[in-house]
Amino acid sequence: MNMGVKKGRKGLKPALFIDRDGTLMEEVDHCCDPAHVRVYPGASEELTKARSLGWATIIVTNQSGIGRGYFTVEQFESVQRELLRQLGDVIDASYMAPDHPDRPSPRRKPAPGMLMEAAAEHGLDLSRSWMIGDKAIDIECGRNAGTRTILVETGYGKKTSECTPDHRSPTVAEAIRIALAS
Ligand SMILES: [Mg+2]
To answer: What is the pTM of this model?
Structure first.
């Protein structure tokens, strides 16, 4: 019987940090319309399991479309609401970096800022956590924050070869299973 994760040092929990576009939901270039949100199969079920075992579940997403002026924070929020509706009550928190890629930012992935913020706000143990995403910058971000990493082969993941994640996985559901079994 799986008794779930033990709280570690100072009661810190491990977390699954999960990218949004191309990882939790189908990649749509700069998605700004809730009608285009399609969650990948199995994600909700595996996230439910993760939380019941004591893992925190955190979305971390770069949204440079805001910094580039393609869409507004309100449009981002309407997409996010639809994603959370389709997933059900399985996400503890979402962090978003609106920065333009040409502007230095401590929060935009691959910088670790959003993960550090989440760790401080939710009492998370980064060394027992995982970053799951479809781009090399997701893997680099996890490594910069001190988590383990899984590259999913959805979204841009199939075309991503220039990184060395701890694991590769065909889907986010399988990636979460790998993390929970660690
Ligand atoms: Mg992505």
So the answer is: 0.94
